[in-house]
Amino acid sequence: MVRVVLGAPASAADRPASALLELMANVDDLDPRLWPAALSACLVAGAADAWCVPIHMKKGRPAFTLHALAAPDAREAVVDAMLTHTTTLGVREVAVTRTVLERHWVDVEVAGRAVPVKIGSREGVVVHAAAEFEALASVADAAGLTQPDTAQRAAAAIVAAGLVAGEAVPPGARSTHG
User: Fold this and answer.
1) DSSP line for 77-120
2) How far apart, in Å, do the first and last CA atoms of the chain sit?
3) How far is CA 12 from CA 22, 55, 123, 132, 172, in A?
4) Alpha-carbon dihedral of residues 165, 132, 16, 45, nearest 10 degrees?
5) Mean pLDDT (the chain, rounded)
6) Is 175 exposed, middle or buried (0-12, 13-18, 19+ CB in 10 A)?
7) pLDDT digits (tens, 9 = 90+) for 135-174
8) Residue 84's pLDDT band (boundaries 50, 70, 90)?
9) DSSP state letters, the chain
10) The pTM is what?
11) How crowded is the C-beta side of 58, counted as CA atoms within 13 Å?
12) pLDDT tens across 92-106, in order?
């Protein structure tokens, strides 16, 4: 099924959107083994998302920019996490608006085990669907399969379940918030 939409783009009122802050800190002297804990600390502090981007600072020094998206009420806790779990001396921020797809979950069977599939949709129509990686890894270990083989089996199960772009979100899908 192909959907063609003519006319003006949907207004902001038609899309789920939220006002957030993007918090950023450049860090050039942190032991790389500490980055997972710094990212985790941001998420535990209330960040909606956190990531690192490699950069080069003055004099060619390799570094990372730590980014976190946070609601205004989580700002202080996330800034504190960035300041205490990295060697940065400062955090900058920019107001951003994030538009997200509606999120739903459906389980598919892979190697005799349930694997949760996250569905991103708009107006009840699937935009994309993907199996949760941790569940795939667990199924691979339990079934004695490789992770690539398990991922391929999950992709086939997702298509067989009709969880493909342009199809309706199945009745009974569990809803979550973005």
Assistant:
1) HHHHHHHHHS--S--EEEEEEEE--EEEEEEEEETTEEEEEEEE
2) 26
3) 20, 33, 14, 29, 28
4) -160
5) 90
6) exposed
7) 999 999 999 999 999 999 999 999 999 999 999 999 989 9
8) very high
9) ------SSPPPGGGS-EEEEEEEEEEESS--GGGHHHHHHHHHHTT-SEEEEEEEE-GGG-EEEEEEEEE-GGGHHHHHHHHHHHS--S--EEEEEEEE--EEEEEEEEETTEEEEEEEEEETTEEEEEEE-HHHHHHHHHHHT--HHHHHHHHHHHHHHTT-STTSBPPTTPEEE--
10) 0.74
11) 0
12) 999 999 999 999 999
Q: Which residue reads 């003006």 in tokens?
A: 8
